[in-house]
Amino acid sequence: MSRQILSIDQIRTEGTATTKLEAIREAHEILAGVGAVSAAYLPAMIEREKTVSTYMGNLLAIPHGTNEAKDEILESALSFVRYAEPIDWDGNPVRFVVGVAGKGNEHLDILGRIAIVFSDEDEVAALENAASPAEVMDILSEVNA
Predict the structure, then answer these.
(1) Model-level pTM?
(2) Which of 7, 36, 106, 130 is least enclosed, having the fewest CB within 10 Å?
């Protein structure tokens, strides 16, 4: 990956969604807003969720599109949204929604980097308490490594 997949303008510390579907839309909106995905990537994200839950544990969900939607990914990127109140994600509480768009096979590397951060409970607590997008960016800096 030759460029940053997460920048400060792709981070929201006060998400507005109250449902899983709204959260997926919010994640897509950020990815589309930076030119990483097309509008057609949203239905693929929703379809992926119908097939396999993207809930990962530790208050995290990572919505992403189906394999059939790979052509809708224009460049690899992440979106990060934190919610004050947990969203019900198929019976699991989610406070962090990280939208994933991985060009080619980059999604596996990207998912691995996210997993490392969210497997550390201290990092998750720091993300919960981060006062600004800049603080979130500092905590997630290794996803751009």
Answers:
(1) 0.95
(2) 7
Helices 20-33 and 41-51, axial angle in degrees (round to 10): 140
CB-CB contact of 101 with 77 (8 Å): yes
Candidates 2, 101, 29; CA nearest to 12 is: 29
Per-residue pLDDT tens digits for 115-133: 999 999 999 999 999 999 9
**d(Cα 115, Cα 117) in Å, to the nearest integer?**
5
Dist. CA 57–CA 41, nearest whole Å: 24
